[in-house]
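QA checklist item 7 of 12: single-chain prediction sanity check.
[x] sequence parsed
[x] length recorded as 230
[x] structure emitted
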Amino acid sequence: GAGLLGIVLFGMHQTRLTSTEPLLDVKHLLHNRVFVLSNIASLAMFSSLFAITFFFSLYLQYVKGYSARDAGFVLFAEPLAQLAFTAIAGVMADKHGAERIALIGAGVGAVSLGLGTFLDAGSALWQLYLILCLNGLSIALFSAPNTVVIMGSVAPQHMSQASGLVGTVRTMGMLCSMMIATGLVRWHIGDAPIGSGNIPDLLAAMHQAFFMFAAMCTISILCSVGRMKR
């Protein structure tokens, strides 16, 4: 709460500055529709995808009975998929337009989150791999192309500010994702250690989180579509 209040106060302060070189040119950037929608899309996207590995780590260890090492090997599928498709996404963005590729990435993310809502104690391991690979593909298709759109929407004198905001928004999205995840785990399980007695509660928290993440990913899709309208 203090952090959010600080952001609001900082924005108000920068808006009222009479200096020709504010730290953040809020007035100019807020009137840039593509810039604003792209950053909202980024915030929603990272808010929806980041905590997936957090839940899957708990799912593999406590629901499936994997060791921490073996769970880590399974989760490694996501960064491998991201690594494999990032370069391809860059080529596709150059050929077909960064806005379209980022939109496809957001759509793939929504699909992966939707599939996650159906996981239960009896789900097969290939289903988990599928979701992780789709998640990695989604980030590969969305992240770099969306950054290209953001940087391309501002004038040269605002590129340093835009670059800083790209990292800030990404970090804020990750924090929001973990806040939602840990808040739901706390709501369903409380202070009790996770064990065989509260596996249904863990699954309920995971399902609710994935549902909320899918809704947030839909916001990213809508923003990605909205910025394409001229």
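[x] summary fact logged: Residues 48-226 form a domain with the Growth Hormone; Chain: A; fold (CATH 1.20.1250.20).
[ ] second reviewer sign-off
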